[in-house]
Write a structure and sequence with these properties.
Elements: H1 2-5, H2 11-43, H3 57-84, H4 87-119, H5 127-146, H6 152-165, H7 169-179, H8 199-231, H9 236-242
Amino acid sequence: MWKWLHPYANPEVCYHFSGKLIPWFAIASAILLTIGLSMSLLFSPADYQQGESVRIFYLHVPAAMLSMGIYLAMAIAALSALVWQLKLAESSIAALAPIGATFTAIALLTGSAWGKPMWGTWWIWDARLTSELILLFLYLGVIALYNAFEDKSLAGKAASVLALVGVVNLPIIHYSVEWWNTLHQGATVSKFEKPSMSVEMLRPFLINLLGFSFLVGALACMRFRTEIIARNSMRPWVKALITGKETN
């Protein structure tokens, strides 16, 4: 397996491979989100307690889940960068951090919009909301740290350390509703044996989650290619690419 993966440690190979993935991810995302959002906004039933406001769920929960998933991917990349000195892993951290920060902000904003009719307030220092806010600060810290150094090798190492340290916040977010007395509702979708929702609501949610996941993949590939170009701007293949002598 390592022999098969070895060529993808080459920035040029990885750049072109990422470019091939973008249209597939983008098309899959567009199709799935069109279907999923149409089902969730137009055809899924209203909740017997929350009414029509439950439709925020179809954006809020995928955004929250992906905010943690992206950070976990960053932490894995950070471990690879620090242990095996993989430069492409550092580039992937820089590519993923702004995307993760965006989805975390969406989760917080939609959570506030959902909390207003349910809790009577836009914000409360609930355990899960607070830990999700800390996650946003961690993302912003990684972005700021990566851009604080002109030497991208040093910047990548510093960002990797912060990304790896911050991963301790993920189990706190996930288990906060079990560890502390909180207003935030408990697990619903993650109860795989018996999810606490009807099939009519679960189906569009899963389609949306998959659609947003493909969207993250497309955005990550585009940003990853940009990072590769920035880090290898003096390489002959990059110069050839810029001058139009090579196509992707």
